[in-house]
Design a protein that fits this description.
The complex is a heterodimer. By secondary structure, chain A is α/β, with parallel strands linked by helices. Chain A contains five helices and five strands; from the N terminus they run βαβαβαβαβα. The chains are: A alpha/beta, B alpha+beta.
Chain lengths: 124, 583
C-alpha cells in the first residue's frame, strides 16, 4: 500500500473532515500528519516533519489559513512548499490565488483528488 | 355737422379712450419728448400717471431702466423700435426687457412703433405700443427651470449630487441662494446642497452652517417645514426676525452678513412623507417671491422629493438583493462542511467495502454513525437558514414544542462555546431541572446567540455569567457580560432589524440576531429584555412560561412597534400553531 507514498500535512479544524482526509490519504499510502489550525500545523513542521504538500483549510478558529501562509512563507525552508487550499467558500479560486496556493479543492469533493494532488506535487 | 361734433368729441376723449387699452401707448416727437402716453404706457415707463411723463424727454423717463434684449444682453438704443421708426423703418418690432437699475426685477414687452409723418419732419411723430408679456416670460422661465431640474433629477440615483445641481439651476434666476436639506429616515436633516450667486458668500454660508447647524435650531424655518410639511414664505425678513432666530450674538452678526431679505422654504415630499426642505433666499431685495414663485418652489420640492424617494427605493432594492446574495453565499458555505463529511465518510465506507480484504465493522459503524450525525448537523443548518429567512420576512417559524429541561439545554450550549472561549462562561443554577414545553433547538439557538453577543462585545478575558432559575410561573435565563454596553438611546432599538444591520459588520449573517431571538421567544409566549450600562456591560433576560398556556408578559424594554407586533396566531403555544411533539 505504501508504494510511492509520500508525506502530507492536513490542516483542518473540523474533526470529522480531519479524520476523513487522514484516513483516505493513509489508505492511498501516504504518511499523514493532521493539525487543527495554523499554529498546530507550524508545530508539526517544527518537529522536523517534512511534507511535500499541505492541504489547508482557510477559515479556522485560532490561527487561520491566511496567517499560517504568511508565517510559512517567512521561513525560506518552506518558501516553495506546495499548498492546496481545501475550503467551502464560493470564492475559493480567488482566495487560493490570494494566499499563493498551488491548487484548490472545494468541499465536498472526490477523495481520489487528495491522492492525485499528493502524487502530482510530490513527484515521487 | 353732427359728424364734425362727433369728431371733436372723440378727439377730446382720445386720452380716456386710450387709457382703456391694456397695452401701453406713447407718442414721441423727433426731439424725443413724450407728447402722449396712456395710463398703461406711463406705468410701463415707471410712472403712476400719464401727466408725470408727458412733456419729458423719453431718455430721462426711461433713465432708471436698463434696456435689455430678450435674452438679458444689453440692447443698443438704436435697436429700439421707436428709434428705428424715426430712422424710416416701416413698422419695427422687438421684444425688450426693461430692468430697474440695480435689481433683477424685469419686465418684458413686445414693442411696436410706427412713424406718423408731419408736414415737415419737425412735425413727425412716433407712435409706440408696448404689449406687456412679463407674465408669459416668467412662466416660460419657471417652466424651463422645472424642466431643467427634472432632467437633472432623472439622470442619476445619487440624489445628493443631483440636488446640488438643481440648487445651481435655481441660482440666480430664482434666488440668490438655494439650500437643500435632506433627512435620512428618523434622523436630523443634513445639508446636501448650497448654491449661491456669490462664491465668497457660499464659503461663508458653509461656515455659518457648520457652526450653527439649522437642524439644531428649533426656530429655523427648516425645522418648522420638516415638522409641518407646509411651506413658509417670508416676503420680508426683518432685523427683529433675524435677531429672534439667532442662537447668540455671533450667530446674529453672521446671519446679518448673509443678508436674508426674504425667504421661501418648501418641503421635499413624496408619498406623504417630508423628506427634506428646499430654501430659497433673496439677500439683495432685487426680487420678490410672489405666489407663482411659491408654486414653482413647491413643485420643485415635489419633484425633488419624488427623485429622493425613487433613489432610496432603488438603493433599498439593491441592498435587499445584495443581502440575499450574501445570504445564499454564506448558507451554501456553511452547508458544504457537513456535506463534505457525509460525502467523505460515504466514500471511505464505499472504498472499504470494495477493497478491504477483511471488513472492519468497527470503522464502518463509526463512519456511518458520523454520516448520520453530519446529516443531523446539515438538517439543523437548513432549519436555521429557513428560520432566518422566515424571521427576516417578519413571519413566524413552525415550532416543535416538547418537554425540555432548560438547565440541561443551557449547559449543552455553554459546552459548545467552551471550545472557543475557554472558561470565561460561568453557570449558576438556582433549581434543577427547569422544565417546560418549548422548542429546544430554537431555544438553544437563542441562548447561543446571547452567548455569542456577550463574547463579541466584551474583552477576551472578561467573565460571562449565565444564570438559570424560576420566577413565579416563569423560567428565567440571564446572560451577563462585562463588555462595552449599549448606549441608553439605543436600548429601544437593539431588537429591531436596522440596529442589527448597522452593528453586524461584514457579512449579513444567516444567524438569528437579536431580532430573530426576540421573535422566537415571543412565539414561545416568552419575553426577552435587556438592561445595560455603557462601559459596564449588559444583562439579557429570557423569560419563558413554565406552564404551556401562560400568556406573554409585556416586554420590560419600551416596546417598539415591531416588538409589539404579535405573531399571527393568538396562542403561539397551542398545538394548532406548532407541531406539538409528545415526550
Amino acid at each position: 500500500m505504501n508504494q510511492g507514498g509520500t508525506r502530507v500535512l492536513v490542516v483542518e479544524d473540523d474533526p470529522a473532515l480531519r479524520d476523513i482526509y487522514s484516513n483516505a490519504l493513509s489508505e492511498f499510502g501516504h504518511e499523514v500528519r493532521a493539525a487543527r489550525d495554523g499554529a498546530d500545523a507550524l508545530q508539526v513542521l517544527a518537529t522536523g516533519f517534512q511534507p511535500c504538500v499541505v492541504f489547508l483549510d482557510l477559515r479556522m478558529p485560532g490561527m487561520n489559513g491566511w496567517e499560517f501562509m504568511r508565517r510559512l512563507r517567512e521561513d525560506p525552508k518552506w518558501e516553495d512548499l506546495p499548498v492546496v487550499v481545501v475550503a467551502a467558500h464560493f470564492r475559493i479560486d480567488d482566495e487560493a490565488r490570494e494566499v499563493g496556493a498551488a491548487a484548490w479543492l472545494q468541499k465536498p469533493f472526490d477523495l481520489n483528488r487528495l491522492d492525485q494532488h499528493a502524487r502530482a506535487y510530490c513527484a515521487c | 355737422m353732427a359728424r364734425g361734433t362727433d369728431a371733436m368729441l372723440l378727439q377730446e376723449r382720445l386720452p380716456e379712450i386710450f387709457d382703456g387699452v391694456a397695452d401701453g401707448v406713447s407718442v414721441l416727437d423727433r426731439t424725443g419728448i413724450v407728447r402722449f402716453a396712456n395710463a398703461a404706457g406711463a406705468r410701463l415707463m415707471g410712472a403712476e400717471r400719464a401727466e408725470d411723463v408727458i412733456g419729458r424727454p423719453s431718455a430721462e423717463v426711461l433713465g432708471h431702466f436698463d434696456v435689455l434684449a430678450e435674452d438679458g444682453s444689453p440692447m443698443a438704443l438704436d435697436q429700439l423700435p421707436t428709434r428705428r421708426a424715426l430712422g424710416g423703418e416701416a413698422t419695427p418690432e422687438a421684444v425688450v426687457r426693461f430692468r430697474i437699475h440695480g435689481t433683477l426685477k424685469d419686465r418684458w414687452s413686445i414693442v411696436r412703433a410706427r412713424l406718423l409723418r408731419g408736414a415737415t419732419s419737425a412735425d413727425d411723430l412716433v407712435v409706440t405700443a408696448f404689449q406687456d408679456i412679463t407674465a408669459l416670460k416668467r412662466s416660460e422661465l419657471r417652466l424651463s427651470i422645472l424642466s431643467e431640474a427634472s432632467a437633472i433629477l432623472g439622470q442619476s440615483t445619487d440624489y445628493e449630487a443631483t440636488l446640488a445641481r438643481v440648487a445651481q439651476v435655481a441660482v440666480p434666476s430664482l434666488a440668490d441662494w438655494c439650500v437643500v436639506d435632506v433627512a435620512e429616515s428618523g434622523r436630523e436633516p443634513h445639508r446636501v446642497a448650497v448654491a449661491h450667486s456669490d462664491p465668497e458668500m457660499l464659503a461663508f454660508a458653509d461656515e455659518v452652517q457648520r457652526r450653527w447647524p439649522s437642524s439644531a435650531n428649533p426656530s429655523s424655518g427648516l425645522d418648522q417645514v420638516m415638522r409641518s410639511g407646509r411651506s413658509i414664505h417670508l416676503p420680508e425678513v426683518t432685523d427683529e426676525m433675524v435677531r429672534a432666530g439667532a442662537l447668540d450674538d455671533e450667530h446674529y452678526e453672521a446671519l446679518r452678513r448673509l443678508g436674508i431679505r426674504s425667504a421661501l422654504v418648501v418641503p421635499l415630499v413624496a408619498r406623504g412623507q417630508v423628506l427634506g426642505a428646499l430654501s430659497l433666499i433673496d439677500s439683495t431685495s432685487q426680487r420678490d417671491f410672489d405666489d407663482d414663485d411659491v408654486a414653482l418652489a413647491e413643485e420643485l420640492g415635489r419633484r425633488a422629493g419624488a427623485a429622493i424617494d425613487a433613489a432610496r427605493l432603488v438603493h433599498e432594492r439593491e441592498t435587499a438583493v445584495r443581502e440575499r446574495d450574501e445570504f445564499v453565499a454564506v448558507a451554501s458555505h456553511d452547508m458544504r462542511t457537513p456535506l463534505a463529511a457525509i460525502s467523505g465518510y460515504a466514500q471511505l465506507a464505499h472504498r472499504h467495502l470494495a477493497t478491504a480484504e477483511e471488513m472492519d465493522r468497527a470503522a464502518l459503524d463509526r463512519w456511518i454513525g458520523d454520516i448520520s450525525s453530519s446529516a443531523d448537523r446539515l438538517t439543523r443548518l437548513v432549519t436555521n437558514l429557513m428560520d432566518a429567512s422566515l424571521l427576516r420576512g417578519g413571519r413566524s417559524v413552525p415550532l416543535y414544542l416538547q418537554p425540555t429541561d432548560l438547565v440541561q439545554l443551557v449547559k449543552e450550549t455553554i459546552a459548545e462555546h467552551r471550545g472557543t472561549t475557554g472558561d470565561r462562561i460561568s453557570l449558576e443554577v438556582e433549581v434543577e431541572p427547569v422544565t417546560g414545553k418549548w422548542d429546544p433547538m430554537r431555544l438553544a439557538r437563542v441562548v447561543d446567540n446571547l452567548l455569542g453577543n456577550a463574547e463579541k462585545y466584551s474583552p477576551e478575558d472578561a467573565p460571562i455569567e449565565v444564570r438559570v432559575g424560576t420566577d413565579g410561573g416563569w423560567a428565567v435565563v440571564t446572560v451577563t457580560d462585562h463588555g462595552i454596553g449599549i448606549p441608553p438611546g439605543d436600548l429601544r432599538r437593539i431588537f429591531t432589524r436596522n440596529y442589527r444591520a448597522r452593528n453586524a459588520r461584514g457579512v449579513a449573517g444567516t444567524g438569528l440576531g437579536l431580532t430573530g431571538s426576540d421573535r422566537l421567544i415571543r412565539q414561545m409566549a416568552g419575553t426577552i429584555d435587556v438592561r445595560s450600562r455603557l462601559g459596564e456591560g449588559s444583562t439579557f433576560t429570557v423569560r419563558l412560561p413554565l406552564a404551556a398556556h401562560v400568556p406573554a408578559a409585556d416586554a420590560t424594554v419600551e416596546a417598539e412597534p415591531q416588538r409589539g407586533a404579535r405573531p399571527m396566531h393568538a396562542d403561539p403555544a397551542s398545538p394548532a400553531a406548532s407541531a406539538d411533539l409528545p415526550a
